[in-house]
Amino acid sequence: MRNFRKTLILIAAAMVLFSASAFAKPKTWVVGFSQEGSESEWRTADTISVQNAFLADPSFDLLYSDAQNKQENQIMAIRSFIARRVNCILFTALVETGYGPVLEEAKRAGIPVVMIDRDVAKEDRHLRLTIIGSDFMKEGEKAGIWLANYLKEKGMADKPINIVELQGTVGSAPAIERAKGFRIIMKDHPNWQITRSQSGDFTTAGGKAVMEAFLKEDKNIQVLFAHNDQMALGAEQAIKEAGLQPGKDIIVIGMDGVKGAFQAIMNGEQNCTVECNPLLGPQAVQAIRDLRDGKKIPPRIWTIEGLFDATNAAAAFPTRQY
Ligand code: GZL
Question: Which listed CATH number (3.40.630.10, 3.40.50.10750, 1.10.260.40, 3.40.50.2300) goes with 29-133+278-304?
Answer without folding.
Answer: 3.40.50.2300
